[in-house]
Every structure is written in structure tokens, then in C-alpha cells.
């Protein structure tokens, strides 16, 4: 089992930067790795790639390994079998949407961990174990140490239960889904008083528990990145591949239009 460099950097308090992959392309993933991202979250909730599309998922993770970037998989929902497919493909962890309670997160951790810490199916003929070439007697315990679980807090009920959720052993960092939180309360934008209060509360509880909160950033990135680091955030999420592509190309086109 390879060492999870992302987990080590977060434990050491280093600033890490990642993005989301929506385009189901190993080439795009490889480019993101060569760009220097510490991690990429493969979105299988909103993108064409699904955790049960095992061949595509495995090739995307393989491309990440080629370019030296850690992969997590955002699941469509909490599921033992989808978690197993993602981790057996070689991803280093999962991001779990829709969690609401401590029990949800306990089950997510169990999905990702081998016995005795969880109920992940035990097989060493997978890509994650280098097709048995990487198997040793301590493979199971090493996998448990290096596999990450990231709850996505996006429902008001999850915010209410946050202290219980963060008391679960095995949570590596937390993401806050401001868009879903806002929409569930009837707000069309994330800049509303209830979501702003929830975001502040989530940050406060995460700081108290010593669990990092991922900070999703928007352009202009020179300002948003500086602000996030100044505010003490260590886990940064820079948009996604589609938004980065759109932002860069539309900016170039707008420059040309202004000059002609």
C-alpha cells in the first residue's frame, strides 16, 4: 500500500491545494497532476464518470498515479459497494455527500476500512494492492492508515449534528456544500444569512476539533487564495477542471474582444 502524501501533509499542517475532476478523461487528470495539485477529487456524483464504471475510473486513477497526484472519489451517495469500487481502483479516499448524522459518517468510515475497523471487502488482487504484487501481511492495516474519509456537510441537519459527526474516528477533513445548503433552505445563492452563519459555525467546530475544513475558492484566485491562507485554511479547493477551463479560455477571449 502506497503512502498517502495528502494525508501526511494535512497532518503536518501544510497547505494543500486540489480541484475536482468532472471531465471523464485520464488525459485531463494527468495534466492536473503535472500542474502540481496535491490532490484531485474525482466527482462521480455530478459527472459522467460513475464509481461502478470501474474501467474508466481505474484509468483516471492510473493517470493520476503517473503524474503524482493523490485521488479521492466523491461518491453519488454513501455506499459500501461504491466505496469499494473506488478504493480497489487505487483511489486514496472518498468524499461522501448527503451525510446527516453520526451514524452516516460511522458507516462511511466502515465502508472505507478493512476489519476490524470496518467492513470493506478484503481482496488483494485489485489495482489498489498492485494486483497482489504489493500484498504483505500488514497490507490491511497500512490501507486503513492511508485511506481517507471526507464528509460533505451540505444539509441543515448535518450542521445541527456536526459535533457528533466530527467525533467519529476516521474523519480526515470536512467539506461544506454551501450551494446545497442554500438551496435546501430556499435561497438561490450561497450569500445568504443562514448559510453564512452555518459556514461560520462549521469552521468554528472544525477548529475546536482540530479537523481541517476545505475551503472552496473562486476567481480571481490571486485574491481568494491569499485571503484563505491569511484566514488559516490549509485545505484549498480550486474550482474544478470545467470551471478552470472556462475561466481561462473566456478570459482570453474577452481580452481579444476588448482589443479589437
Give a summary of the structure in a few sentences:
The protein has 260 residues and is of the alpha/beta class. The protein contains 12 helices and 8 strands.
Number of domains: 1
Separation of the first and last Cα atoms: 56 Å
Low-pLDDT regions:
none
CATH topology assignment: TIM Barrel
Query: In DSSP terms, counting alpha (H) and pi (I) runs of 4 or more, how many helices?
Result: 12
Rg measurement, Å:
18 Å
In CATH terms, the superfamily is: Phosphoenolpyruvate-binding domains
Main sheet summary: 8 strands, parallel
Q: Percent helix among the residues?
A: 40-55%
| Beta-strand content estimate | 5-15%
CATH architecture: Alpha-Beta Barrel
Instruction: Please tell me what the overall shape is.
Output: globular
Structural class: alpha/beta
The CATH class assignment is Alpha Beta
Notes on the structure:
The longest helix is centred in the last third of the chain and has 19 residues, at 241-259. β7 (215-217), α11 and β8 form a beta-alpha-beta unit. The protein has a single domain (5-259), classed as TIM Barrel (Alpha-Beta Barrel), CATH 3.20.20. An 8-stranded parallel β-sheet has the order 6-5-4-3-2-1-8-7. It is globular and about 65 Å long. It has helices at residues 5-11, 26-35, 54-67, 80-88, 102-112, 139-146, 156-160, 162-166, 178-184, 193-209, 221-230, 241-259; strands at residues 16-21, 39-43, 70-74, 93-96, 148-153, 175-176, 215-217, 235-240. The mean pLDDT is 95. 47% of the residues lie in helices and 14% in strands. It is built from 12 helices and 8 strands. By secondary structure, it is of the alpha/beta class.
Amino acid at each position: 500500500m502506497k503512502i498517502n502524501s495528502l494525508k501526511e501533509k494535512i497532518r503536518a499542517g501544510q497547505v494543500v491545494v486540489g480541484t475536482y475532476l468532472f471531465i471523464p478523461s485520464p488525459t485531463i487528470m494527468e495534466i492536473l497532476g503535472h500542474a502540481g495539485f496535491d490532490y484531485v477529487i474525482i466527482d462521480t456524483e455530478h459527472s459522467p464518470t460513475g464509481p461502478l464504471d470501474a474501467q474508466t475510473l481505474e484509468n483516471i486513477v492510473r493517470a493520476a498515479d503517473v503524474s503524482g497526484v493523490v485521488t479521492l472519489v466523491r461518491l453519488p451517495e454513501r455506499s459500501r459497494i461504491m466505496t469499494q469500487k473506488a478504493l480497489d481502483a487505487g483511489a486514496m479516499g472518498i468524499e461522501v455527500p448527503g451525510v446527516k448524522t453520526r451514524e452516516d459518517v460511522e458507516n462511511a468510515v466502515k465502508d472505507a476500512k478493512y476489519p476490524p475497523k470496518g467492513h470493506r471487502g478484503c481482496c488483494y488482487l485489485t489495482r489498489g494492492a498492485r494486483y497482489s504484487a504489493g500484498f504483505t501481511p500488514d497490507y490491511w492495516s497500512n490501507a486503513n492508515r492511508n485511506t481517507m474519509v471526507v464528509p460533505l456537510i451540505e444539509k441543515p441537519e448535518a450542521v445541527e449534528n456536526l459535533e457528533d459527526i466530527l467525533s467519529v474516528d476516521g474523519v480526515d477533513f470536512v467539506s461544506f456544500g454551501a450551494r446545497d445548503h442554500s438551496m435546501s433552505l430556499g435561497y438561490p445563492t450561497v450569500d445568504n444569512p443562514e448559510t453564512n452563519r452555518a459556514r461560520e459555525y462549521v469552521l468554528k467546530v472544525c477548529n475546536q476539533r482540530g479537523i481541517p475544513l476545505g475551503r472552496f475558492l473562486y476567481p480571481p484566485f490571486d485574491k481568494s487564495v491569499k485571503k484563505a491562507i491569511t484566514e488559516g485554511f490549509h485545505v484549498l479547493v480550486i474550482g474544478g477542471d470545467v470551471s478552470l477551463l472556462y475561466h481561462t479560455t473566456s478570459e482570453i477571449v474577452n481580452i481579444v474582444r476588448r482589443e479589437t
